[in-house]
Design brief:
The longest helix has 14 residues. The protein starts with a strand and ends with a strand. The strands form five sheets. Strands 13-12-11-14-15-19-16 form a seven-stranded mixed sheet, sandwiched between helices. Strands 6-7-10-8-9 form a five-stranded mixed sheet, with helices on one face. It is an alpha/beta fold. The chain folds into three domains: about 90 residues, Cobalt-precorrin-4 Transmethylase, domain 1; about 100 residues, Tetrapyrrole methylase, C-terminal domain (Methyltransferase, Cobalt-precorrin-4 Transmethylase, Domain 2); about 180 residues, Vaccinia Virus protein VP39 (Rossmann fold, 3-Layer(aba) Sandwich), CATH 3.40.50. The model has no long low-confidence stretch (mean pLDDT about 95). Strand 14, helix 10 and strand 15 form a beta-alpha-beta unit. The chain is built from eleven helices and 19 strands.
Protein backbone atom coordinates (compact mmCIF):
# COMPACT_ATOMS: atom_id res chain seq x y z
CA UNK A 1 0.00 0.00 0.00
CA UNK A 2 1.44 3.34 -1.03
CA UNK A 3 1.75 6.15 1.52
CA UNK A 4 2.42 9.80 0.72
CA UNK A 5 4.77 11.99 2.77
CA UNK A 6 2.10 13.43 5.09
CA UNK A 7 1.38 9.92 6.35
CA UNK A 8 -1.84 8.86 8.06
CA UNK A 9 -3.89 12.01 7.20
CA UNK A 10 -3.20 11.48 3.50
CA UNK A 11 -4.42 7.87 3.39
CA UNK A 12 -7.99 7.43 2.04
CA UNK A 13 -10.56 6.14 4.58
CA UNK A 14 -11.07 2.81 2.81
CA UNK A 15 -7.31 2.09 2.98
CA UNK A 16 -7.09 3.23 6.59
CA UNK A 17 -9.76 0.65 7.40
CA UNK A 18 -7.68 -2.06 5.72
CA UNK A 19 -4.62 -1.09 7.72
CA UNK A 20 -6.52 -1.07 11.01
CA UNK A 21 -8.10 -4.44 10.21
CA UNK A 22 -4.75 -6.09 9.42
CA UNK A 23 -3.19 -8.61 11.77
CA UNK A 24 0.31 -7.67 10.62
CA UNK A 25 1.79 -4.50 9.11
CA UNK A 26 5.22 -4.63 7.45
CA UNK A 27 7.27 -1.64 6.36
CA UNK A 28 10.19 0.65 7.03
CA UNK A 29 10.58 2.36 10.38
CA UNK A 30 9.37 5.69 8.96
CA UNK A 31 6.17 4.17 7.59
CA UNK A 32 5.36 2.23 10.76
CA UNK A 33 5.91 5.33 12.90
CA UNK A 34 3.19 7.13 10.92
CA UNK A 35 0.46 4.79 12.18
CA UNK A 36 -1.69 5.27 15.28
CA UNK A 37 -1.16 2.78 18.07
CA UNK A 38 -3.34 -0.33 17.84
CA UNK A 39 -3.34 -3.05 20.49
CA UNK A 40 -2.76 -6.57 19.21
CA UNK A 41 -1.47 -5.61 15.78
CA UNK A 42 1.98 -6.95 14.87
CA UNK A 43 4.28 -4.42 13.23
CA UNK A 44 7.62 -5.48 11.78
CA UNK A 45 10.39 -3.60 10.01
CA UNK A 46 11.98 -4.93 6.87
CA UNK A 47 14.82 -7.42 7.35
CA UNK A 48 18.34 -6.60 6.22
CA UNK A 49 19.33 -7.68 3.64
CA UNK A 50 15.77 -7.21 2.40
CA UNK A 51 15.47 -9.68 -0.49
CA UNK A 52 17.23 -12.51 1.32
CA UNK A 53 15.14 -12.16 4.48
CA UNK A 54 11.78 -11.39 2.90
CA UNK A 55 10.56 -14.95 2.12
CA UNK A 56 11.03 -16.11 5.71
CA UNK A 57 9.36 -12.98 7.08
CA UNK A 58 6.28 -13.38 4.88
CA UNK A 59 6.12 -17.13 5.49
CA UNK A 60 5.89 -16.42 9.22
CA UNK A 61 2.50 -14.78 8.71
CA UNK A 62 0.88 -17.04 6.12
CA UNK A 63 -2.88 -17.20 6.71
CA UNK A 64 -3.01 -13.85 8.51
CA UNK A 65 -4.11 -10.49 7.13
CA UNK A 66 -0.90 -8.69 6.14
CA UNK A 67 -0.54 -5.10 4.92
CA UNK A 68 2.74 -3.77 3.51
CA UNK A 69 3.44 -0.04 3.61
CA UNK A 70 5.67 1.72 1.08
CA UNK A 71 6.28 5.21 -0.24
CA UNK A 72 4.12 6.50 -3.10
CA UNK A 73 3.75 3.98 -5.90
CA UNK A 74 5.25 0.67 -4.67
CA UNK A 75 5.98 -0.32 -8.28
CA UNK A 76 8.33 2.67 -8.82
CA UNK A 77 11.64 1.16 -7.69
CA UNK A 78 9.67 -0.18 -4.73
CA UNK A 79 8.81 -3.20 -2.65
CA UNK A 80 5.86 -4.28 -4.83
CA UNK A 81 8.22 -5.30 -7.63
CA UNK A 82 10.16 -7.56 -5.26
CA UNK A 83 7.02 -9.07 -3.73
CA UNK A 84 5.54 -9.90 -7.14
CA UNK A 85 8.83 -11.45 -8.30
CA UNK A 86 9.01 -13.62 -5.18
CA UNK A 87 5.37 -14.59 -4.67
CA UNK A 88 3.58 -13.94 -7.99
CA UNK A 89 1.08 -11.23 -8.98
CA UNK A 90 -1.91 -13.24 -7.76
CA UNK A 91 -0.58 -13.06 -4.18
CA UNK A 92 -0.09 -9.28 -4.04
CA UNK A 93 -2.82 -6.63 -4.10
CA UNK A 94 -1.22 -3.21 -4.71
CA UNK A 95 -2.84 0.13 -3.81
CA UNK A 96 -0.52 2.87 -5.10
CA UNK A 97 -0.45 6.48 -3.95
CA UNK A 98 0.91 9.35 -6.03
CA UNK A 99 4.58 8.56 -6.55
CA UNK A 100 7.39 10.94 -5.66
CA UNK A 101 8.39 10.79 -9.34
CA UNK A 102 4.99 12.13 -10.40
CA UNK A 103 5.11 14.83 -7.73
CA UNK A 104 8.63 15.84 -8.76
CA UNK A 105 7.64 16.15 -12.42
CA UNK A 106 4.61 18.21 -11.41
CA UNK A 107 6.71 20.59 -9.31
CA UNK A 108 9.20 21.01 -12.17
CA UNK A 109 6.58 21.24 -14.92
CA UNK A 110 8.23 18.38 -16.82
CA UNK A 111 6.31 16.05 -19.14
CA UNK A 112 6.79 12.36 -18.33
CA UNK A 113 8.17 11.54 -21.78
CA UNK A 114 11.00 14.10 -21.34
CA UNK A 115 12.36 12.61 -18.11
CA UNK A 116 14.41 9.57 -17.12
CA UNK A 117 14.00 8.16 -13.61
CA UNK A 118 17.12 6.89 -11.84
CA UNK A 119 16.87 5.15 -8.48
CA UNK A 120 19.84 5.35 -6.11
CA UNK A 121 17.95 3.71 -3.24
CA UNK A 122 20.15 0.85 -2.12
CA UNK A 123 22.43 1.41 -5.11
CA UNK A 124 25.76 3.21 -5.64
CA UNK A 125 25.38 6.88 -6.55
CA UNK A 126 27.67 6.31 -9.55
CA UNK A 127 24.68 4.73 -11.30
CA UNK A 128 23.61 8.24 -12.29
CA UNK A 129 26.63 8.53 -14.59
CA UNK A 130 25.16 6.10 -17.14
CA UNK A 131 22.56 8.73 -18.01
CA UNK A 132 24.81 11.72 -18.74
CA UNK A 133 23.82 13.62 -21.87
CA UNK A 134 23.60 17.36 -22.53
CA UNK A 135 20.06 18.72 -22.12
CA UNK A 136 18.82 15.45 -20.59
CA UNK A 137 16.50 15.56 -17.56
CA UNK A 138 16.65 13.15 -14.65
CA UNK A 139 14.46 12.51 -11.63
CA UNK A 140 16.78 10.84 -9.13
CA UNK A 141 15.35 8.91 -6.18
CA UNK A 142 17.73 9.60 -3.28
CA UNK A 143 18.87 7.14 -0.65
CA UNK A 144 19.05 9.85 2.03
CA UNK A 145 20.08 13.44 2.71
CA UNK A 146 23.66 12.76 1.54
CA UNK A 147 22.69 11.70 -1.97
CA UNK A 148 22.35 15.21 -3.50
CA UNK A 149 25.90 16.12 -2.50
CA UNK A 150 27.20 12.80 -3.83
CA UNK A 151 25.41 13.29 -7.14
CA UNK A 152 26.62 16.88 -7.43
CA UNK A 153 30.22 15.78 -6.84
CA UNK A 154 30.01 12.99 -9.41
CA UNK A 155 28.52 15.35 -12.01
CA UNK A 156 31.23 17.95 -11.40
CA UNK A 157 33.99 15.34 -11.72
CA UNK A 158 32.48 14.12 -15.01
CA UNK A 159 32.43 17.51 -16.73
CA UNK A 160 28.83 18.27 -15.80
CA UNK A 161 29.48 20.97 -13.19
CA UNK A 162 27.03 23.31 -14.97
CA UNK A 163 24.12 20.93 -14.38
CA UNK A 164 21.27 22.37 -12.29
CA UNK A 165 20.01 20.37 -9.32
CA UNK A 166 16.66 20.97 -7.65
CA UNK A 167 16.27 18.99 -4.45
CA UNK A 168 12.63 18.47 -3.54
CA UNK A 169 12.23 17.42 0.08
CA UNK A 170 9.24 15.76 1.77
CA UNK A 171 7.12 15.92 -1.37
CA UNK A 172 3.41 16.14 -0.59
CA UNK A 173 3.87 16.97 3.10
CA UNK A 174 3.38 20.27 4.94
CA UNK A 175 7.16 20.38 5.39
CA UNK A 176 7.83 20.19 1.62
CA UNK A 177 11.01 22.05 0.66
CA UNK A 178 12.91 23.06 -2.46
CA UNK A 179 16.62 23.86 -2.84
CA UNK A 180 18.35 24.68 -6.12
CA UNK A 181 21.92 25.10 -7.30
CA UNK A 182 24.63 24.04 -9.73
CA UNK A 183 26.52 20.77 -9.35
CA UNK A 184 29.90 22.50 -9.39
CA UNK A 185 29.10 24.78 -6.45
CA UNK A 186 26.64 22.63 -4.52
CA UNK A 187 26.74 23.16 -0.75
CA UNK A 188 23.06 22.96 0.26
CA UNK A 189 21.59 20.96 3.11
CA UNK A 190 18.94 18.49 1.96
CA UNK A 191 15.95 16.91 3.65
CA UNK A 192 16.43 13.23 4.49
CA UNK A 193 13.47 12.26 2.28
CA UNK A 194 14.18 13.87 -1.08
CA UNK A 195 14.05 13.57 -4.84
CA UNK A 196 16.55 15.33 -7.12
CA UNK A 197 15.47 16.91 -10.39
CA UNK A 198 18.55 17.28 -12.60
CA UNK A 199 18.94 19.34 -15.77
CA UNK A 200 22.16 18.03 -17.27
CA UNK A 201 24.70 20.33 -18.92
CA UNK A 202 27.99 18.94 -20.15
CA UNK A 203 29.79 17.23 -23.03
CA UNK A 204 28.16 14.66 -25.27
CA UNK A 205 29.34 11.09 -24.71
CA UNK A 206 28.08 8.11 -26.70
CA UNK A 207 26.25 5.33 -24.91
CA UNK A 208 28.64 2.84 -26.49
CA UNK A 209 31.67 3.19 -28.71
CA UNK A 210 33.32 5.34 -26.03
CA UNK A 211 36.77 6.82 -26.67
CA UNK A 212 39.56 4.52 -25.53
CA UNK A 213 40.99 7.15 -23.19
CA UNK A 214 37.94 7.16 -20.90
CA UNK A 215 39.06 3.74 -19.68
CA UNK A 216 41.77 3.03 -17.15
CA UNK A 217 43.84 0.37 -18.90
CA UNK A 218 47.15 -1.46 -19.04
CA UNK A 219 46.75 -1.65 -22.82
CA UNK A 220 44.64 -4.81 -22.73
CA UNK A 221 41.40 -3.42 -24.13
CA UNK A 222 39.20 -3.85 -27.17
CA UNK A 223 39.78 -0.66 -29.15
CA UNK A 224 36.86 1.61 -29.96
CA UNK A 225 36.34 0.65 -33.62
CA UNK A 226 36.57 -3.07 -32.86
CA UNK A 227 34.25 -2.63 -29.88
CA UNK A 228 31.62 -1.03 -32.09
CA UNK A 229 31.93 -3.88 -34.59
CA UNK A 230 31.49 -6.43 -31.80
CA UNK A 231 28.55 -4.72 -30.09
CA UNK A 232 26.67 -4.28 -33.35
CA UNK A 233 26.69 -8.08 -33.68
CA UNK A 234 26.11 -8.81 -30.00
CA UNK A 235 22.92 -6.71 -30.35
CA UNK A 236 22.24 -5.57 -26.76
CA UNK A 237 18.55 -5.77 -25.83
CA UNK A 238 16.72 -4.71 -22.63
CA UNK A 239 16.90 -7.27 -19.85
CA UNK A 240 19.44 -9.51 -21.56
CA UNK A 241 22.67 -10.92 -20.11
CA UNK A 242 26.18 -10.81 -21.63
CA UNK A 243 29.23 -12.81 -20.69
CA UNK A 244 32.39 -10.76 -21.37
CA UNK A 245 35.04 -13.50 -21.30
CA UNK A 246 38.67 -12.46 -21.00
CA UNK A 247 37.33 -9.01 -20.15
CA UNK A 248 40.70 -7.22 -19.81
CA UNK A 249 39.54 -3.65 -19.16
CA UNK A 250 35.82 -4.47 -19.20
CA UNK A 251 34.97 -2.30 -22.21
CA UNK A 252 32.46 -4.58 -23.94
CA UNK A 253 30.56 -5.54 -20.79
CA UNK A 254 30.44 -1.93 -19.63
CA UNK A 255 29.12 -0.62 -22.94
CA UNK A 256 26.60 -3.46 -23.21
CA UNK A 257 25.16 -2.33 -19.85
CA UNK A 258 25.17 1.33 -20.86
CA UNK A 259 22.75 0.65 -23.72
CA UNK A 260 19.78 0.13 -21.34
CA UNK A 261 19.27 0.21 -17.55
CA UNK A 262 18.09 -3.42 -17.52
CA UNK A 263 21.01 -4.86 -19.52
CA UNK A 264 23.20 -7.11 -17.36
CA UNK A 265 26.76 -8.34 -17.84
CA UNK A 266 29.26 -10.65 -16.19
CA UNK A 267 32.93 -9.85 -16.78
CA UNK A 268 35.18 -12.90 -16.49
CA UNK A 269 38.85 -12.06 -15.99
CA UNK A 270 41.68 -14.31 -14.81
CA UNK A 271 43.96 -11.58 -13.42
CA UNK A 272 42.97 -9.92 -10.15
CA UNK A 273 44.69 -6.61 -10.98
CA UNK A 274 42.69 -6.31 -14.18
CA UNK A 275 39.53 -7.31 -12.32
CA UNK A 276 40.03 -4.41 -9.91
CA UNK A 277 40.50 -2.09 -12.88
CA UNK A 278 37.26 -3.36 -14.45
CA UNK A 279 35.41 -2.51 -11.24
CA UNK A 280 36.76 1.04 -11.25
CA UNK A 281 35.90 1.54 -14.92
CA UNK A 282 32.37 0.22 -14.45
CA UNK A 283 31.72 2.53 -11.50
CA UNK A 284 33.12 5.61 -13.24
CA UNK A 285 31.06 4.97 -16.39
CA UNK A 286 27.77 4.52 -14.57
CA UNK A 287 27.30 0.74 -14.43
CA UNK A 288 28.45 -0.27 -10.92
CA UNK A 289 26.17 -3.31 -11.16
CA UNK A 290 28.54 -5.08 -13.56
CA UNK A 291 29.17 -8.52 -12.06
CA UNK A 292 32.75 -9.71 -11.87
CA UNK A 293 34.08 -13.26 -11.79
CA UNK A 294 37.82 -13.62 -11.17
CA UNK A 295 39.34 -16.78 -12.56
CA UNK A 296 40.39 -18.49 -15.78
CA UNK A 297 37.77 -19.52 -18.31
CA UNK A 298 36.21 -21.94 -19.03
CA UNK A 299 36.28 -23.13 -15.39
CA UNK A 300 35.20 -19.70 -14.15
CA UNK A 301 32.00 -19.95 -16.21
CA UNK A 302 30.62 -22.77 -14.08
CA UNK A 303 27.37 -21.86 -12.35
CA UNK A 304 26.78 -18.62 -14.23
CA UNK A 305 23.25 -17.99 -15.55
CA UNK A 306 22.77 -18.75 -19.24
CA UNK A 307 23.74 -15.74 -21.37
CA UNK A 308 21.89 -14.12 -24.25
CA UNK A 309 25.21 -13.08 -25.78
CA UNK A 310 28.90 -13.86 -25.26
CA UNK A 311 31.99 -11.88 -26.20
CA UNK A 312 35.35 -13.61 -26.10
CA UNK A 313 38.04 -10.96 -26.30
CA UNK A 314 40.93 -13.15 -25.28
CA UNK A 315 41.79 -16.76 -24.62
CA UNK A 316 39.75 -18.30 -27.42
CA UNK A 317 42.40 -20.98 -27.98
CA UNK A 318 41.98 -22.36 -24.45
CA UNK A 319 40.69 -25.90 -25.03
CA UNK A 320 36.91 -26.13 -24.77
CA UNK A 321 36.27 -22.41 -24.20
CA UNK A 322 34.40 -21.60 -27.41
CA UNK A 323 32.36 -24.81 -27.24
CA UNK A 324 31.45 -24.07 -23.62
CA UNK A 325 30.16 -20.63 -24.62
CA UNK A 326 28.18 -22.06 -27.55
CA UNK A 327 26.55 -24.66 -25.33
CA UNK A 328 25.71 -22.16 -22.58
CA UNK A 329 23.97 -19.57 -24.77
CA UNK A 330 20.21 -19.37 -24.86
CA UNK A 331 18.43 -20.04 -28.16
CA UNK A 332 18.91 -17.02 -30.38
CA UNK A 333 22.09 -16.13 -28.48
CA UNK A 334 24.89 -14.22 -30.17
CA UNK A 335 28.57 -15.11 -29.91
CA UNK A 336 31.40 -12.83 -31.02
CA UNK A 337 35.03 -13.94 -30.76
CA UNK A 338 38.08 -11.80 -31.52
CA UNK A 339 41.54 -13.12 -32.27
CA UNK A 340 44.86 -11.63 -33.38
CA UNK A 341 47.06 -14.72 -33.66
CA UNK A 342 47.34 -17.25 -36.47
CA UNK A 343 46.33 -19.96 -34.03
CA UNK A 344 43.11 -18.15 -33.08
CA UNK A 345 42.39 -17.31 -36.71
CA UNK A 346 42.70 -20.99 -37.60
CA UNK A 347 40.37 -21.95 -34.76
CA UNK A 348 37.77 -19.38 -35.86
CA UNK A 349 37.94 -20.51 -39.45
CA UNK A 350 37.28 -24.05 -38.30
CA UNK A 351 34.40 -22.87 -36.09
CA UNK A 352 32.80 -21.11 -39.05
CA UNK A 353 33.20 -24.21 -41.20
CA UNK A 354 31.47 -26.29 -38.54
CA UNK A 355 28.75 -23.92 -37.32
CA UNK A 356 28.41 -21.18 -39.92
CA UNK A 357 28.27 -17.54 -39.00
CA UNK A 358 30.19 -14.51 -40.20
CA UNK A 359 33.97 -14.34 -40.40
CA UNK A 360 35.50 -10.88 -40.79
CA UNK A 361 39.07 -9.62 -40.76
CA UNK A 362 39.26 -6.05 -39.48
CA UNK A 363 42.23 -3.81 -40.16
CA UNK A 364 42.17 -0.28 -38.71
CA UNK A 365 44.76 2.43 -39.27
CA UNK A 366 45.15 5.59 -37.23
CA UNK A 367 46.66 8.92 -38.28
CA UNK A 368 49.83 9.68 -36.31
CA UNK A 369 52.91 11.94 -36.60
CA UNK A 370 55.45 10.78 -39.16
CA UNK A 371 58.43 13.07 -38.84
CA UNK A 372 57.10 16.55 -39.59
CA UNK A 373 54.14 15.04 -41.45
CA UNK A 374 51.21 12.76 -40.63
CA UNK A 375 50.99 9.15 -41.71
CA UNK A 376 48.90 6.06 -41.15
CA UNK A 377 49.84 3.68 -38.33
CA UNK A 378 48.17 0.28 -38.71
CA UNK A 379 46.85 -1.50 -35.64
CA UNK A 380 47.12 -5.26 -35.41
CA UNK A 381 44.55 -6.96 -37.65
CA UNK A 382 41.73 -8.69 -35.77
CA UNK A 383 39.76 -11.70 -36.96
CA UNK A 384 36.16 -11.66 -35.81
CA UNK A 385 33.78 -14.60 -35.81
CA UNK A 386 30.10 -13.79 -35.18
CA UNK A 387 27.53 -16.53 -34.75
CA UNK A 388 23.81 -16.62 -33.89
CA UNK A 389 22.49 -19.75 -32.20
CA UNK A 390 19.34 -21.30 -33.63
CA UNK A 391 16.13 -20.50 -31.79
CA UNK A 392 14.87 -24.08 -31.71
Amino acid sequence: MGVVADGWPGIPDRLRDRILAADVVLGGARHLDLLPQLDGQVRERWPSPLRAGLPALVQRYVGRRVVVLASGDPFVSGIATTLVELFGPESVDVEPAVSSVSLARARMGWAAETVETVSLVGRPATGVLRSLAPGHRLVVLSADERTPSEVAGLLAESGYAASRLTVLGDLGADSESRVEGLAGSWDAVSARLNVIAVELAGPALPTWGLPDDVYESDGQLTRRDLRVAALSRLAPAPGQLLWDVGAGTGTVGIEWMRTHPTCRAVAVEARSDRAERITRNASRLGVPGLELVVGPAPDALAGLPAPDAVFVGGGATVPGLVDRCLDAMRPGGRLVVHGVTLETESLLAAARAEHGGELTRIQVEYAAPLGSFTGWTPARAVTQWAFVKETS
